[in-house]
Design goal:
The chain is mostly helical. The protein has 8 helices and no strands.
């Protein structure tokens, strides 16, 4: 029951995030950050809700052809609507490469995703724990468990200093989830 409810929530959030790619200018930064935090908390709390049926050791559920094509199409539309130029801010550069990396990772192109994550990292913005979790997951799926563990440990370090984690319950949930990722690859 809980798994079905959380799965439905993830699908709904995914649809909202898909809409964000297309109509980015219509969503305020606060709304975007709130949705991103909600997605991170839902994904990070996967171990707590028994998502071990979805996340097996070093594997993630594969997307079907329609899901992959939908992600690819939304990402292409996002890139066309938000091209980088000489006036792009570091935040725009980060967002552009991070979104592309996330899409590439989701469709199974881990090497390309890691390259895009590295471009996002070189944008000059401060990297959050969620960035390192995403990068760690790409390495984990690729099978580079040593690097994945190092990225998860970086995520743990960043989470300890993240001012956005304002209450103890949220901090504990994030720390628990990151530690679950580390334990999963031991």
């Amino acid at each position: 029951m809980v798994l079905a409810t959380v799965s439905a929530l993830i699908v709904s959030i995914s649809k909202l995030l898909g809409a964000m790619y297309i109509s980015r200018s219509k969503i305020t930064n606060l709304t975007r950050k709130t949705l991103l935090l909600l997605v991170c908390l839902v994904v990070l709390s996967g171990g707590y809700f028994g998502f071990k049926t979805i996340f097996k050791r070093h594997t993630v559920r594969s997307l079907d052809a329609d899901e992959k094509q939908g992600l690819i199409s939304r990402n292409e539309e996002y890139q066309q609507a938000n091209p980088l130029d000489s006036n792009s801010t570091p935040e725009q550069i980060y967002e552009y490469y991070f979104n592309n990396a996330s899409t590439l990772s989701a469709i199974g192109k881990q090497d390309e995703a890691i390259a895009e994550f590295n471009k996002a990292a070189s944008s000059g913005t401060k990297l959050s724990y969620s960035f390192y979790i995403s990068l760690g997951l790409a390495y984990e799926i690729k099978g580079d468990f040593k690097t994945a563990k190092a990225k998860y440990e970086q995520a743990l370090n960043e989470a300890q200093h993240d001012p956005n984690l304002i209450d103890d319950a949220t901090k504990q949930s994030v720390f628990f989830s990151i530690n679950e990722n580390i334990e999963r690859i031991k």
